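Interim report, section 4.2 (structural modelling).
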Amino acid sequence: MAKMTDGTLPARATGAPKVAFFNDPKTRSLIFQGLALALLVFVIFTAVTNAVTNLRNQNIAGGFGFLDQTAGFGISQTPIPWSESMSYGRAFLIGLLNTLLVAIVGIFFATLLGFVVGVARLSPNWVISKIAYWYVEVIRNLPLLFQILFWYLAVLASMPAPRNSHSLFGLFFANQRGITVPRPIFEPGSGYIGIALILGIVAAFVVRSWAYKRQAATGEQFPVAASMVGLILGLPIVAYLVTGMPVSFDYAQQGRFNLTGGMTLIPEFVALTLALVAYTAAFIGEIVRAGIQAVSYGQTEAGRSLGLPEGRILNLIVVPQALRVIIPPLTSQYLNLAKNSSLAVGIGYPDMVSVGGTILNQTGQAIEIIAMWMGCYLTISIVTSIFMNWYNQRIALVER
Amino acid sequence: MQKCGVFRVKAPDDGALWVPAKDNKSTTNRVGKAATMKRIVSTLALGAALGFGATAALAQAPSTLRNIQNKGFVQCGVTQGLAGFSMPDSAGNWTGLDVDLCRAIAAAIFNDPTKVRFSPLSAKDRFTALQSGEVDLLSRNTTWTLQRDTSLGLNFAGINYYDGQGFMVRKSLNVKSARELSGASVCVQTGTTTELNVADFFRANNLKYEPVVFASADETIKAYDSGRCDVFTTDASGLYAERVKLAKPDDHVVLPEIISKEPLGPVVRHGDDQWLDVVKWVHFAMITAEELNITKANLDQMLQSTNPEVRRVLGVEGNGGEALGLTKDWVVRIVRHVGNYAEIFDRNVGPSTRLGISRGLNALWTKGGLQYAPPIR
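Predicted structure of the assembly:
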């Protein structure tokens, strides 16, 4: 361009071409970005001042001071100790823990079931692949809230009243009020068992990494799986016996209304977990199928021509490459599951939304509670995302 | 020969900011369970509306009455269906004690009891809906408490039903008193004083319980019916109203204890005294009409009455109605279209209805009850 101006327009011979400042791409972009930013700031400012004015006009106290006040309501599932005389802040924390509990348990089982479904859809067995196909098509096309209600009513309807509980060895009970198991009571000295468990896990991974290195160097194999299981289970059992068996159990007894004692999984938790697992697994199944199909069939054939058994081909060739395709969409399914758990409010599971809603109603602090909800879900999602991105990078194809 | 500038303008993602304050669609027809998601969304929308929506109306023109006269109807927050208090009939018309209060207000303003639109609200959403200006008043069996009257920014306009909380259990459990309920599972609706009272009751009596908390009354009673809980608890009037929804109503019994005071009444926003006066005095007018024995049937005779009190109440003498911002004949309008308090009570919840509730505390003060209205003069 400079050449052209030099030759044809001697009047504007030197320097950069002169354009009006409003036609300059850089200036323009700055102006429009500035306008957009100003608009955004104005919108936020107006919203905040309006909210503050309205709240003041309506005599509604703002701020987070209400979190210290006594809550005064009961919660049906409390991972940490709770009584009605504790604060709103602790009630909200319990709601958050309940959300995390259902999200973690749900993600774990949805991943397992999803992989099974995904592999089953690719099965050469016609019956298995059709079952998996219909499972995916039916489950993922029904609204989740509907499924949660279905499972809740199904769980409640299939169970007997507490007085006629289904019982297994008199230790495990199932009835309309939930599934009750003996509750372990940890006496002094039981801390060593926990330490032994952690040591066992660490040792298991050390052994695994040593065995891999040794195999890479010498080609000698080591029974990795068996020794890992042995370390993780064996060390705590040894610690349990050495410290004089400091764990006893509280067994459930038939009370007047319900079973008393033991540990109970409430039916709301069971129903919500079942629904979330079934629903998310249908999506994960499709992701897994897509991931496996994305690995060129030539890879499998190459493995076969090297004489590798089918299991090894899957483990060493197909899955590692499929994972690269699977992990990113899998992350969004995990995030969906965590967020979908807020539908718990429909069946009375005391998650963050349910408990927070109660607090909102009792205190009227709508803006604060909604901000807390958003902050918590955002944090959960971002942490999940960061972890999955880290894992994705770890398994990414290393090019040599 | 000039390259076009690339517009790298980032639009603010403000899709969620401008939620209309009076989003009627989000709250009507919310019957049944599929609406739970909608309700969550609506809670958020209401929260947002509190911040962004109803600002102009509140900041500049706080006159709810003038606003209602301009738009031509009263927007009334009611329950999602509580027999006798607010429930749509088979034709979709709302009926009930609380509904009739809204109709009476519409009658007093417009001389037409049909100029009301109803927003069914869950216990949890009701206050936010009122605060954000989505409804003009709540007539939704709401208990008057200090905290709601003050820190929620609301005002209670009176008590149109004196109630108390009770318990319902299955007859087969053989429970005779609420004090025998230790270890029971209790189904309760969230966002209610009920939820707090039941916690207080069990704590005060050193009893254990498992609360199972649901977002709507319907979900609560269904969970109780399916056996999730031993006990269903709500206001005594609600127990009788909800019992008719059970599969076998006769298998259930209401325990004798009343564990709390539940004065139920209409609620308006704090800061609009004129509108508070209108709601308050429409309620008082219905009680006064009962006291003076002015009914739908004898209204025309009463207009000829020589009794100065009747003449004043009916606006034949004096101008009390105009002082309220209404017309002289406001009480005439209320009684002609809706009736006095006794007529409303008997029609909706009285002994001749399915609920069969006797007047009890809700009888006039002259008949041993608590309903008492300041003089209209």
